[in-house]
Amino acid sequence: MIRAFYRSAKVEGTPSPYDTLTLKVYYRAIFGDTPEERNTGTVPADLTHAPFPIVIFLPGVNVGMESYAWLAIELAKRNNVVVLYSWIAEDFPGSVSITPGMDLNFIKPDTYGTGPSANALPAILDELERLDQSGLLAGSLDLNRIFLGGHSAGGTMALLNANREWFPQVQGAFTYAAHSGASTMLGFPPATVLPLHDCPTLIMGGTRDGVIEASSHRYALDGKGTPTLLLERTFHEGAKQDSALVIFDGMNHFLAAHPHDDTTGRGFLEQASAGNETDTRQLMVNLIEAFICKQDLKKLSNDPLIAKFETK
C-alpha cells in the first residue's frame, strides 16, 4: 500500500502570499485495519526496509504535482520516500505560476556556481529533518541519501543544484526534458551550456520534444535547435563521472507528466508521441531506480524504446 500526507513549509525571504510550499510525501504503508486508521485515514509506514532514500521531485512550470503522482507512487513501491510539492510564486514581475523555485540572481554569468538557485530546497530539507524527528516517518529517513528529480524547468533546477558543497546530503539528480542551456536573456553568450557540479546525473529526454525544440531561440542556437541537442550537450559538456544520457524514441516533452493538464503551461508547442508511452514510463522508472541503487544502467540500454544511450 502506498500512502501520502501533506505538509506546508515557509520559504524564507519570499514575500507573502508567495512564501508557502505545499508538500505531498509518499511512502510505503502497512494497513493494520485499526479504528484509528479507519477514522483518520492515517496508515503507519512499513518500516521493513528503513531507512529510506528520499527523492525530492521539482516540477515543471505550471505543471501541477498531481501529474507526477504516478512516478511518486512507483518509486515509493521501491522503498523510496518521495516528496512532491506545489509552489505558486512570482518568478518574473507580473507572472504568477506554479514554479519549481528559481532564484535568477544565481543564474547569471557572474553569479552562476556561487550559490544555490533552487530556493525551494532549503525549506524542503528542513521539513524532512522535522519529519524524521516525529510523526509517521520518525527515525526512518536516510537524510544522507537524497536524490533530486525534476521535469522541464524543475529538471534544470535539479541539475544546477545537485552540488554537495551546498547540499552534502544530495547524492545525484535525475531529469526528464531538462538541460543546462543558459538563456541569452540572463546575459549569457549564445549557445552557452552551464557546467554541472559534483553529483552523478541521469539525463533523460525524447526525440519528439516539441517544447524544447520550440524554445531554442532562448539560447540563440541559430535555428540549429533540436528536441535533444541541449540534452546531449549538457551530458557531454556539463555532466560529471557516473552519469548517463537516455533518449527515448518517439517521446515528447510531457511524457513524465501523466496525466497532463493542457490548460496551463506550453503544451500547445508539443508534438504527439509516436510510441508506447505506458511502456516508456515503466522503463523510465526502472532506469531511475537503477540510478538510485547505483546499478549498471547498461543492462537496460538495449531496450528498443531507447533511441540513444551513453554513459561516462
Written description of the protein model:
A 9-stranded mixed sheet has the order 1-2-4-3-7-8-9-10-11, with helices on both faces. Strands 5-6 form a two-stranded antiparallel ribbon. By secondary structure, it is α/β, with parallel strands linked by helices. α4 (about 155-160) links the parallel β7 and β8. It contains 7 helices and 11 strands. The mean pLDDT is about 95. The chain starts with a strand and ends with a strand.
Brief write-up:
This protein has 312 residues and is of the alpha/beta class. Helices cover 22% and strands 24% of the residues. The relative contact order is 0.12.
Q: Any chance you could write out the topology, listing elements then pairs?
A:
Elements: E1 2-10, E2 20-28, H1 35-40, E3 52-58, H2 69-77, E4 81-86, E5 88-92, E6 95-98, H3 121-133, E7 141-151, H4 153-161, E8 170-176, E9 201-206, H5 210-214, H6 229-238, E10 244-248, H7 277-292, E11 306-311
Parallel strand pairs: 3-4, 3-7, 7-8, 8-9, 9-10
Antiparallel strand pairs: 1-2, 2-4, 5-6, 10-11
Please indicate the percent range of residues in DSSP E strands (runs of 2 or more).
15-25%
Number of strands: 11
- Mean pLDDT equals 95
Regarding quaternary structure, what we see is single chain
Strand order of the largest sheet: 1-2-4-3-7-8-9-10-11
Q: What percent of the residues sit in helical stretches (DSSP H or I)?
A: 10-25%
Secondary structure class reads alpha/beta
Number of helices: 7
Principal-axis shape? globular
Report the biggest beta sheet as strand number plus sense, adding barrel if it closes.
9 strands, mixed
The end-to-end distance, rounded to whole angstroms, is 37 Å
Order of helices and strands: EEHEHEEEHEHEEHHEHE
Rg value: 19 Å
- Low-confidence stretches are none
